[in-house]
Amino acid sequence: MQYIVRNLNFFLYEKRDYALLVFRIILGGMFIWHGFPKIMGGVEGWTALGKSLSVVGITFAPAMFGFFSAISEFVGGICFVLGLFYRIASFLLFSNLMVAFLTQMLAGKGLPKASQSLEDGASFLAAIAIGPGKFSLDAKLGFLK
């Protein structure tokens, strides 16, 4: 049994860069898909998004905060998929999702509504530590060691 587990672990370890590529495409693609309508929502949409911060007492410049959130999702998703400025994009997406989680919980929506933000945020936090893998623009441009 130990032989099988050891060989399976070695095989999977050797394929980790392919797994990271699939992970980046799927998760980043979903954030591009979710972020695009927010970018296209214009000032009205950004303002509505930014107003969610009122539950933590931030009531000024809701359009600016909404725009930053939309940009983080859309551009961050693109960078995540490409593996370009990967850790910066992951941090911005993690931060955005933790704010989303906090505001959803404080607004009384509960864990069933807020759990996706927490789960995705945890994925981006782990991505910061793991890195984009060798099939990334960061690797091609020499940003990784």
Major beta sheet, specifics?
A: none
Q: Tell me, rounded to a whole number, the average pLDDT.
A: 94
Structural class: mainly alpha
Envelope shape:
elongated
Query: Radius of gyration, rounded?
Result: 18 Å
**Distance separating the two termini:** 36 Å
pLDDT below 50 for ≥5 consecutive residues: which ranges? none
Helix content: over 70%
Number of domains: 1
Number of helices: 7
The total strand number stands at 0
Strand residues, percent:
under 5%
Order of helices and strands: HHHHHHH
Written description of the protein model:
With 145 residues, the chain is mainly alpha-helical. The protein has one domain (17-130). Helices cover 79% and strands 0% of the residues. The protein has 7 helices and no strands. The protein has helices at residues 2-14, 16-40, 42-50, 62-82, 86-106, 110-130, 137-140. Helix 4 (62-82) packs across helix 5 (86-106). It is elongated and about 60 Å long. The mean pLDDT is 94.
Primary descriptors:
145 residues; single chain; mainly alpha
What's the short version?
The chain is mostly helical. It is built from seven helices and no strands.
Q: How is this fold's topology laid out?
A:
Blueprint: H1 2-14, H2 16-40, H3 42-50, H4 62-82, H5 86-106, H6 110-130, H7 137-140
Helix pairs in contact: 2-4, 3-4, 4-5, 5-6
